[in-house]
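Worked example 2:
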Amino acid sequence: MNVERFGKVAVLFGGNSAEREVSLKSGQAVLDALLEAGVDAHAFDPASSSLTELVAAKFHRVLIMLHGRGGEDGTLQGALQQLGIPYTGSGVLGSALCMDKVRSKWIWQALGLPTAEYQVVDKSSFNADLCDDIMARLGGLVMVKPAQEGSSIGMAKVSDAAELSDAVQQAFQYDHQVLLERFITGQEFTVSLLGDKTLPSIRMQTPRTFYDYEAKYQANSTEYFCPSGLDSQAEALLGSLARRAFEALNGSGWGRVDFMQDKSGQFYLLEANTVPGMTQKSLVPMAAKQAGMSFSDLALEVLATSELSR
């Protein structure tokens, strides 16, 4: 790949979101890979530098490695478009929709894509007296998710009304809107998308209550299976479903879609990610390696998504 065409590149990582720590690790890994490949790449942390400095320093493009709010939700993408600086990944609308778990569900449900039963609660109107009815309607085992956080931050798995009330109040610390989903008992999968490539699926397994922040980034007990163990027909189905779900939310460039598979073999969409992690324990690099790509090649292909027309 001719890396000179990219010019001067800013790798944006860090930021002020609840996922800052993960972003720092992802960004440093990508920056190192780009430098190794000969790209004129530089670290840039929006927490300590104004975006207008990107213009003053004459950067030609930006690789976004900011996870969560302010980097993955469309606000940064809009600012970069106003500044006239090309950037990686999804545009404003795709970023905003993929970040919002509630609106993702609404769109998938409207298109007939498989997603678990759910209910949305708002901070201004939530009443703990409703928890018994919610638990009964959602099957007695419920996942609680802030609408616009990533890396499983603020999430909890609950099995009774008292736990639900407490978990919702905890989730309200991160967002005014909270998604409650029927818990799908089964196996968890993820599919990474890179340009027009659909990378091999990965199956995750953890002894923890669910695949939470610690299981993703800290625990040594989490197991990853790539190949995931699906037969060729199920692998093709899952890949096609990931592509449809991502594009339904206007996702583009690269991303990752997460699923649960119940005991009957039915897949259910969980969420879509427009700036997936790129740490040593992250899933996209693992899938890319299975597809025969080095980390450096992967970083370059992510950077190449900055050449998408918007």
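The chain has three domains: 3-88, 98-112+185-305, 118-182. The domain at 98-112+185-305 is CATH 3.30.470.20 (D-amino Acid Aminotransferase; Chain A, domain 1).
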